[in-house]
Amino acid sequence: MTTNTVVASIGSVNYQVHLSDGAHTWLGDEPESAGGGNRGPEPTSLLLSSLGTCTAITLKMYAQRKEWPLDGVRVTLSLETGSQGTKISRDIDLEGALSAEQRERLLQIANACPLHKILTHPIEINTGLVAV
């Protein structure tokens, strides 16, 4: 089992969230139209960026192990929510002189990236308050 920890904290600046994983820091925010300062991606973009990053890295690693001519990967993601739930669309552009079989295998591998697995399996979120 892998454990990753991210700390998200907000102060006096409306909706600007400071994020840290212990080695890196970044910002999350809301657009100005929602009362934020647009100083960082909004939460949905952060979620999609995680899936896109995982997909691209997984495909690159797999192709390198196989010594396939994958020159680049571009992953375009969008998210729709509605009464039926949430739908994420992921379009993958593979650059390089890949055969049809290699391209098809990489599509299968994209669906095996760790974040894809997390998002498509049951998720349990345990929430508690820290004692003061």
TrEMBL record:
<dbReference type="InterPro" id="IPR015946">
    <property type="entry name" value="KH_dom-like_a/b"/>
</dbReference>
<protein>
    <submittedName>
        <fullName>OsmC family protein</fullName>
    </submittedName>
</protein>
<dbReference type="Pfam" id="PF02566">
    <property type="entry name" value="OsmC"/>
</dbReference>
<dbReference type="InterPro" id="IPR003718">
    <property type="entry name" value="OsmC/Ohr_fam"/>
</dbReference>
<dbReference type="InterPro" id="IPR036102">
    <property type="entry name" value="OsmC/Ohrsf"/>
</dbReference>
